[in-house]
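Hi W.,

Here's what went into the run:
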Amino acid sequence: MASALKNLSSYDEQSIPSAEECSFGIVVSEWNAEITHALYEGCYETLRKHGAKEENIHTAQVPGSFELPMGAKLLAGRHNLDAVICLGCVIKGETPHNEYINQSVATGLTTLSLASGRPFIFGLLTPNTVEQAKDRAGGKHGNKGVEAAVTALRMAALKRQLGNRKKPIGF
Ligand code: DLZ
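Here's what came out:
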């Protein structure tokens, strides 16, 4: 299995466009807070590393991952954001609650992205165990918060490059 072998969060820093002009939202779930705060730190530091200004990173906390899409919608309604990153951790339990939450977050963020034309990034860990979560929140497999930030940086740049383009002859 690929994840058994490597840190999945490695990326080519030179290939990431500068975020100096961009604004970002980060929505973070309070469930499994030890994990989600580690995701948040990785995410925030990565945005800053690539030029995002402190005043252009807006954060909101939601009670659980199920609330991520709504929190993201509210945050995007408040600020003019180039991308919104949603961070959470849903650990599999004895019942299928995790499947409902995960599916709901995925559908909610896809809907928000397509309806708004703005990237809403899926930074949700869906592990079977706490150990798997720790491995992906600053542990041996890296930090999914970093990966979510990198995706947001790339999508924000793509949106600036391709979005809002007027046709040259006006229609
Ligand atoms: C209820 C619940 C459970 C059992 N597990 C998690 C979890 O592992 N991770 C998470 O982010 N949230 C969990 N929640 C809370 C739901 O996301 C949601 O906040 C509640 O169902 C209220 O809508």
